[in-house]
Amino acid sequence: MDARLASGARGRFRLAELEGALTRHDCLGWADAGRIEVGARADLVAVRTDTVRTAGSLPEQVLLAATAADVDTAVVDGSVVVEGGRHRLGDVGALLGEAIAGALA
């Protein structure tokens, strides 16, 4: 984490290294996660590549360009949670606002 501070240089990590760190779950105690194979936990995210932020990005750049607004589909432990950009619970922002207001009342 402090490599940039120590070296004074940017861009010290290749995208493959960052992607590898992003998919490592063994440090969380989940040895069966972070890869796509039979029997492994199925946490996947599909990101749109035709949005203002992602249009024109190379496939390997989408990870660095996309935000939560660009998520089209999310599968958590094998269950679809977001489909077509919509969370199965509905308007998550409104639900969060209601929960916060309720907690403050």
Q: What proportion of the residues form beta strands (DSSP E)? A: 15-25%
Classify the helix fraction into a percent range. Answer: 25-40%
In DSSP terms (H or I, runs of 4 or more residues), the helix count works out at 4
Number of strands: 4
Highlighted features:
105 residues, alpha+beta, 2 domains, four-stranded antiparallel beta sheet, 4 helices, extended
Model description:
The structure is a single chain. By secondary structure, the chain is α+β, with helices and mostly antiparallel strands. The protein folds into two domains: 1-38, no CATH class; 42-105, no CATH class. It is 29% helix and 16% strand. Strands 1-2-3-4 form a four-stranded antiparallel sheet, with no helix packed on it. β3 (79-83) and β4 form a beta hairpin. The longest helix has 13 residues, at 92-104. The protein is extended. The mean pLDDT is 83.
In short:
With 105 residues, the chain is an alpha+beta fold.
Secondary structure elements and their pairing?
Elements: H1 3-7, H2 15-22, E1 44-47, H3 62-65, E2 71-76, E3 79-83, E4 86-87, H4 92-104
Antiparallel strand pairs: 1-2, 2-3, 3-4
